[in-house]
Write a structure and sequence with these properties.
- The chain has about 375 residues and is mainly α.
- Among the domains are: about 100 residues, no CATH class; about 110 residues, Transcription termination factor 3, mitochondrial.
- About 60% of the residues lie in helices and about 0% in strands.
- It has 21 helices and 2 strands.
- Strands 1-2 form a two-stranded antiparallel ribbon.
- The chain is globular and about 70 Å long.
- This is Mitochondrial transcription termination factor 2.
- Keywords: Signal, Transit peptide.
- One of its GO terms (molecular function) is nucleic acid binding.
- It comes from Stegastes partitus (bicolor damselfish).
Length: about 375
Amino acid sequence: MLRLIATSLCLRCQHVTALPLNLRPCATLSSAENQQTVEALYDLSVNIQKIRKLKGWVLHQSPAYTKEVADLLRNMGASGPIIARILGVHPEAVLCNPKHMQSQRELWMSVCPNQKELVGIIEKFPASFFTSSSHHDNQRNNIAYFQSLNLNKRIITKLMASAPQSFSRPVEQNEVMVCTLQQAYRELGGEEANMKIWLQKLLSQNPFVLLKPPEVLRQNLLFLRDKGFSTAELLRLLSSLKGFVTELNPDSMRSTLAYSHDTIGCSEAELRDIILKCPALLYYPESILAERFEGLLSAGISMSQITETPTVLELTTQIVNYRIQRLKARGYDVRTGSLQVLNGTKKDFEMSFGKLQLRRERPLFNPVAPLKVDD
C-alpha cells in the first residue's frame, strides 16, 4: 500500500515538473477550466477543442493574459487569423506576464528589421518568443555577443528563432563553441578576411551547431585527417557539411566509409575524391546507402556513373525513380547519359528538365540553308 502511494506521488510530481518552467512561479493549476481564458480564446476564434486535446492543462491555469497577448500581437500588425493560429499552436503564450512580453518585443526588435517580420517569426516559432522571463538576461547577453562578432542581424534573428536554446543559456557556452569554430577555420588555412562570412553561413545553415560540445568537432576533424584528407580538403568539408560535421562521430563515419569503399570497389584516394564531391556520404547510415545504391543499380545505372556524379546518392530512391521515368518519357536514357540532370532540388530538376525539353523541341538552325520568303 505504501509503495502504491509513493508511486502515485512520484507520478504526480513528474506531471507537475512537465509544466514549462516559466509558468510555475506566476500561475496556479485549478481542477476546473479558467472560463475567462476559454471565452477569450473562443472570441479570438482559436480551436479550443484542439487545445483541450493537446495542451489542456493551459486552460486550467490562473492567472492568464489572453487579451493582453492578443493586443500585443495586434499592435505589431498581426491579423485575427494569425493571432488565432499562434495561440492555437502555442496556447502557453497566454500565461506569459505582459511586462515580460513587452520586454521580449523590445529585445527582438533590437535585431529584427521591422514588426511585420517579427510577427512572421512568432507565427513560425512562437515558443522562441514566449519564453521564460528567467532567460531574458541570457538572451540579451547572447545578442550583444553575436553583434560584437559583426554578424548580420538577420542571422542573429534566425538563430534566436530556430535554436532558442542557444540564447537561453549563458553566453560563455556560445563563446567557447564559436572560438572552437574560428580556431578550426584558422588552423585549416582559412583566410581571416573571409572568416565572418564563413561563420555566418555555417551558423545559418545549422543553428544547432552551437549546442554541440566543442570536443565533437575536434574529434571528427582528427578522424578525417587520419583518413588522409589534407588541411585544405578538411576546410572544404567543414564548409560543405554546413555545420553538420558536429552531428557526426568517428564510429559512424568509419562504418559508412568502410561500406562505401567495399560497395564501390575503389581505392582510399578515390573514395576521398568521391567524399569531397558528396560530403553527405559521411553521415548517411549504411542502411540508407545500401538502399540507394541498389535502387540506382537496378535502374540500369553503372557504378562508374554513380562515382562520377555521387551527389545523386543524396536523393531518395523514390525521387530518383520518378525523375528517371519523366526523363524516359522525353526520350532521355540515364543509362547512357549524364546523371547530372537527376541532381538537385525539385526546382533544380524542373529547370534541367525544361532545358532538356527545349533542346529537343527547338529545330536546328542551318546558317547555309536558304530562307523561305513569302512571295
